[in-house]
Design a protein that fits this description.
single chain; disordered N terminus; alpha+beta; four-stranded mixed sheet
Length: 101
Amino acid sequence: MTWPWQRRDSNAANLTVSFPNHSRSYDPTRRAVHFWGHDRSMESSFFVTADALKQIEPNLQSDSAGFLRAFDVNRERIYAIAAKVYARGRKGSYELNVADV
C-alpha cells in the first residue's frame, strides 16, 4: 500500500519555489553565490557556482564583487534556472552549475 505522502507524483506538482528574499552573498569556500528560495514556509539554500556565472556572463570580473554583480544583472535568469533545478526534487540545498545554465 502506498500512502499519499509517499507518492512521488503527488509531490511533483508541489515543487514550486519563489525568491522573495533578494539577499545574496559570495561564499569563497564553495566558489559560489548563495541565495535563498521559499516553497510555502520552507526555506532552501541555493548556490550558483562561479563557473556557471562565467558561463552566463563570460567577461565578468573574477572576484566576489564581480560574481555578485553578475548574479544581480542576471537574477531573473538565475531564478528561472534555480526553479528548474528545484523541480527535480527536494534536497537540503541546490547547486546550479555549468550543466544547468
